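Hi R.,

Here's the chain you asked about this morning:
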Amino acid sequence: MLYDVSEPQCGMWRQVVCEDFNEGYRMKKAVVASLLAVASVAPGVRYAYSQSQVNLGSGAQQQPATAGGVQMSQAEYNAYNNAITQTSPQAKAPALESYLTTYPQSAVKAEVLQQLMVAYSSFDPAKTLDAADRLLQVDPNNLRALTLEVYFRKASADQLTDVTAKQAALDKAADSAQKGLAATKPKDMSDDDFKKLQASANPIFYSAIGTAALNKKDTATAITNFKQELAAVPVDQTTKPGPVLQDTYFLGLAYLQSTPPDYINCTFYVSRFVAFAPEPYKSQMTPTASYCYKKYHGNSEGYDKVTTAAQANLNPPSDFTITPAPKASDIAHQTVTSTSDLGTLALSDKEFILQNGTSEDAEKVFATVKGKTVEIPDATVISATDSVLTVAVSDDAVQSKTADFTFNMKEPLRTAPAVGSKVALTGTYASYSQGGAAANTATSGTASGSAGAAGSTDTSATAGASSAGSSTSATTGTSTTTGTSTTGASTTGASTTGTGAAGASTTSAGAAAGPGPVMIVMNDGALVAKAGKAAGKRAAAPARRPAPARKRR
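And here is the predicted structure, written out as tokens:
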């Protein structure tokens, strides 16, 4: 499943990566068990979990009494010894359960529950969690039990499809992870052993906390914990397919989902994931890295330097930079200053400058069209009354179904065109506003305007306009009007390509946004008949044609 470059489907990240990528490279349950063992010997020999020596007391042949030893009856010792010497987890688990049933108050209950938990971990996740819960009732700070709780609860959450249930399961795993990070060293464990155990457990804890946070859009917590996870393991483990490499991708995703998005760090960490991920995951996630880079830089030029740095470094080096795309206002100004005759600009470019340029640059461009009558073909109707039409003209406005032109009709329409229909219109440029719909009153013909969006800046006190919704603009250079396109770039967040004479796309989020949507107001509006003649009073002619037919009847 590939991500759409224009809009990464972040909500599907756990399905795409966790269930597929991690399924093939998931830590084996036996490996988890070995990580939890502070001291272990060759395969086939039991883990040395019990820190207390078992002492059968007076008369016992197997263990002499020693200071601090555990006293057991012969019968209890036989049951205990039978359970811990079983050679397979499937045989050891029921034997340990039998021992605990017979001796519920055993002095070695915690150690037996720990061995039971590890035995179950190799073949029964549900019973592993049950044993861990029982162990934590006896020893609330048991780091091994907390580790298995976190690991298996997080794994089970990955299989859930109900959003609420999944988040609840992830939160429960994260809660256990927080307890694990806060756990203190047992009195009977050496500092070295405890540090080894922490080194194995902490990455699992950080991953669970980060995953739960990212799933509920708490990106700051997710970023902190995923970075701590990466720092807690040897660097070579971050380059191998598995949970840590998977979380490198999620770290990049957390930066992307931040407010505002951090496209630089998104680019770096997703690129690092891509550098080491096997197929098909490499191809599936490459578009996300590309998306973040283009959103900040404006195009794909120079991306190879990012991939080189990401492959060589766990985190962005101090000299790591991505050049931001030019600001939209800079592109607009460059276009104005480099064009000898602003009247030759395509309509799309004029609209781009009106939206993104400074007031001075916008005024210069609008001065070339103000008072001029033009025909606008293929406008999409957004709203219509008998006196005012709002239409979408630019590509972006059409796609987003928002108006960027308002036509105050010279004469009332008998039949208003349907919303969504294509029409050709003539009109005279009267005014424009930056930041939304203009709020003004028409002064020509019989048209009247209505209040527009608050905060808009109208450049004419006499032009009339009304708007349906917020307006957008585009600079794709595909307008059917004549002129030379100089910017050639889309200003919508979904687009990531496009360069022109100005030299860069304006789609990068690294580039500051312009003043906002523009609304261009046209007075003396009229529909144009298909034959190319101004409709004027005949605009509603199709509605009158049946009348003569009825007279003939």
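One quick note: The radius of gyration is 35 Å.

Cheers,
M.
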